[in-house]
Amino acid sequence: MRKMTEKNLKEAFAGESQAHMKYAIFAEKAEEDGLKNVARLFRAISFAELVHAKNHLKALGQMGDSMDNLQTAIDGETYEVEEMYPAFRAVADLQNERGAQQSINYALQAEKVHAGMYQSAKQAVASGSDIKIGAIYICKKCGYTVEGEAPKRCPICGAPSAEFKEF
Ligand code: FE2
Ligand code: FE2
Ligand code: FE2
């Protein structure tokens, strides 16, 4: 692919990804505000942006098989935990940015288990089977991720077990 087209597709992928995420988050807010149809509109258009992001990713040649995709996920999670968030946290500390300190810390702590979970999945897929995994619980407040059952209190943010979403 020509350089400029590749750059444009990457930019479009980033923009569509952010729109998808923002609209999904805005839908939650509209739901809280009792605006059911506004929430539905946000969710619908969020899905359209997901379709656009997916098409751009495929056009970029970044859609692999599940083994490739698991490795991409492992690399991304490892980068976040080992380099990106520790560096971002250091800057937030330096600048005494409280909101950023909390959101970065929640992410840094919660991300720590993701690479390992993907690694186990990759090993299973490499040996020709799907991963054997129980229920996965995610804390709605900080993203803490755990297999099996939700803890009474989130070890990262202290949220009660009712605040966990099951997958
Ligand atoms: Fe779009
Ligand atoms: Fe993660
Ligand atoms: Fe939490």
In short:
The chain contains 5 helices and 3 strands. With 167 residues, it is mainly alpha-helical.
Q: What distance lies between the first and last C-alpha atoms, to the nearest angstrom?
A: 38 Å
CATH architecture of the largest domain: Up-down Bundle
**Outline type:** globular
SSE ordering: HHHHHEEE
Strand content: 5-15%
The overall strand count is 3
Lateral arrangement of strands in the main beta sheet: 2-1-3
Look at the structure and give the mean pLDDT: 97
Q: Which molecules are bound in this entry?
A: fe (ii) ion
| Top-tier CATH class of the largest domain | Mainly Alpha
Structural class category: mainly alpha
Computed over alpha carbons, the radius of gyration is 18 Å
Q: Major β-sheet, in short?
A: 3 strands, antiparallel
Q: Please identify which CATH superfamily of the largest domain we are dealing with.
A: Ferritin, core subunit, four-helix bundle
Structure notes:
The protein starts with a helix and ends with a strand. The chain has 3 domains: 57 residues, Ferritin, core subunit, four-helix bundle (Ferritin, Up-down Bundle), CATH 1.20.1260; 68 residues, Ferritin; 34 residues, Rubrerythrin, domain 2 (Single Sheet). A hairpin with a 5-residue loop joins β1 and β2. The chain has 5 helices and 3 strands; from the N terminus they run αααααβββ. The longest helix has 30 residues. With 167 residues, it is mostly helical. One fe (ii) ion binds next to loops.
